[in-house]
Specification:
The protein is of the alpha/beta class. Helices cover 43% and strands 12% of the residues. It has helices at residues 16-27, 50-62, 68-84, 91-103, 108-127, 134-137, 148-159, 187-197, 231-239, 250-255, and strands spanning 4-8, 32-37, 130-131, 165-166, 171-173, 179-181, 202-207, 260-264. The chain has a six-stranded parallel sheet, with helices on both faces. Strands 5-6 form a two-stranded antiparallel ribbon. β1, α1 (16-27) and β2 form a beta-alpha-beta unit. The longest helix has 20 residues, at 108-127. The radius of gyration is 18 Å and the shape is globular.
């Protein structure tokens, strides 16, 4: 059996209909064994990403204001997805625990990471895959720097006997067990790390564009897609502001000589950029 790690961005998992697209993509190729989800993103113009709602929740609690209204919005997003997909997971219990932890002073990193954590639980239940908490396999050192050696050992050991799993993006844990996040967009980094740890044949990064384009579509109408890039060209584009892929997500797969395929969840028939 081959091994593909597929990371899905926030727009790909924004609601139940998007989740359904993701499930169809995953099930279309049984080599897609390890799935890395982001938190639910915007469903429409003017909508708020769940991660931003979580930051707002944390600030509301810190300033001693009534947090219930913000927390209700977060709950509504997850419960609506759960109910629309007909899942049985008691997501309310997990949401209550998150609320309690934040009220008791959990960190901003912990708060922000719960978007991916909760979405990972829903997606694992929907796909029938094992759920692996990223805090158990992705590690940072005491200075808060990503600990590659420890992480690779943990992932290799943990994934050895697992056929299919969901591993939330964006976060890991410190030596004391506290949650630590990557920078914004860090689910791309998690996907690349999992691909390296699993010694995957391919790292798929599913987003809301057909791949890398030859020009900024906000400036040039209908620019052509780039079919193939080198790692060096990809990194240059990322540094110059191409928002398709987080620049730090390139090194783990480059180091392991794993190809990246950037594809569009809404147009899975497109081959994307390799």
């Amino acid at each position: 059996m081959g091994s593909i790690v597929a990371k899905f961005g926030g727009s790909s998992l924004a609601d139940a209909s998007q989740m359904e697209k993701v499930r169809n993509i995953v099930m279309a190729n049984r080599d897609r064994r390890f799935i890395v989800p982001s938190a639910p993103g915007k469903r429409f113009d003017g909508d708020t990403k769940v991660t931003d709602l979580l930051y707002e929740l944390k600030h509301t609690v810190e300033y001693g204001k009534d947090h219930k209204k913000v927390f209700a919005k977060i709950c509504k997003r997850y419960i609506e997805i759960r109910d629309a997909l007909g899942l049985s997971i008691k997501i309310e219990d997990y949401l209550s625990q998150v609320e309690q932890d934040i009220l008791e002073g959990e960190s901003s990193d912990y708060t922000a990471s719960r978007g991916e954590y909760l979405n990972g639980l829903l997606l694992a239940d929907y796909l029938g895959f094992e759920f692996i908490d990223a805090a158990d396999v992705i590690k940072f050192d005491r200075r808060g720097k990503y600990d590659q050696s420890t992480t690779m050992d943990l992932l290799a050991h943990r994934l050895r006997d697992v056929d299919y799993a969901v591993i939330p993006g964006f976060y890991g844990s410190m030596p004391d067990g506290g949650i630590k996040t990557f920078s914004r967009g860090g689910s791309d980094i998690t996907g690349a790390i999992v691909a390296a740890g699993a010694e995957a044949d391919l790292y798929e990064n599913w987003t809301d564009v057909d791949g890398f384009l030859m020009a900024d579509p906000r400036i040039v109408p209908n620019p052509r897609k780039i079919d193939c890039l080198t790692y060096r060209e990809l990194r240059e584009l990322s540094y110059m502001g191409a928002n398709v892929l987080h620049e730090d997500a390139i090194f783990p797969v480059f180091q392991a000589a794993i190809p990246i395929n950037v594809r569009n969840t809404n147009h899975p028939e497109e081959t994307g950029t390799m």
